[in-house]
Amino acid sequence: MSLLVVGSIAFDSIETPRGAVEEALGGSATFFSVSASFFTKPRLVGVVGEDFPDRHKKLFVDRGIDTTGLATAPGKTFRWKGRYHQDMNTRDTLEVHLNVFETFEPTLPPAFQGSTHIFLANSSPVIQAKVLDQISKARLVMADTMDLWIETQHDELMALLPRIDGLLLNDSEARLLTGEENMVRAGRAVRQLGPKFVIIKKGEHGAMLFSEDGVFVVPAYPTPDVVDPTGAGDCFAGGILGYLDSDDSPPPGRLRRAMAFGTVVSSLVVEDFGLRRLQRTNRNEIDERLEQYRAMLSF
Amino acid sequence: MSLLVVGSIAFDSIETPRGAVEEALGGSATFFSVSASFFTKPRLVGVVGEDFPDRHKKLFVDRGIDTTGLATAPGKTFRWKGRYHQDMNTRDTLEVHLNVFETFEPTLPPAFQGSTHIFLANSSPVIQAKVLDQISKARLVMADTMDLWIETQHDELMALLPRIDGLLLNDSEARLLTGEENMVRAGRAVRQLGPKFVIIKKGEHGAMLFSEDGVFVVPAYPTPDVVDPTGAGDCFAGGILGYLDSDDSPPPGRLRRAMAFGTVVSSLVVEDFGLRRLQRTNRNEIDERLEQYRAMLSF
Question: Among candidates A219, A248, A249, A213, which has minimal Cα distance to A236?
Answer without folding.
Answer: A219
